[in-house]
Amino acid sequence: MRFMMMVKAVEPSGPPPQGLMDAMGVHMQEAISKGTMVMAGGLAPMAQSHRVRLSSGKVSVLDGPFTETKEVVGGFAIMDFKSVEEALQAAKDFIELHKKHWPGWEGESEVRQLFGADDFPPK
After folding, report:
1. What CA dihedral angle connects 121, 90, 98 and 10, to 10 degrees?
2. Of 101, 98, 114, nearest to 39 (Cα)?
3. Helices (H), 7-120
4. How far apart are CA 3 and CA 39, in angstroms?
5. How does pLDDT run across 9-48, given as a tens digit for each residue?
């Protein structure tokens, strides 16, 4: 089962401490070695982002930052697990790294299962 795991926090929370980056590097290498990490990455700040919106039949492009945004996705990982429970434990472990290495940081990891064409067979 594949999952997208997104880390969300209030922006700007500043650059992550080096200790967290080092711990995440070890954490990610372990996931790669186990074969559970498919890919991961950090995302640019909202000030460098855009939204393409369809509203009232019109397509528009909005430049960031977006004032109505309270929490933003700062990074993501595509992971491969055998169960939802395994995915949730991995998300807890990832957030524990933040708790340990970035005192005062508050955020969350959203865990969403990915669906493919096989999950929606033709009728």
Report:
1. 20
2. 114
3. 18-34, 84-101
4. 11
5. 887 667 889 999 999 999 999 999 999 999 999 888 888 9
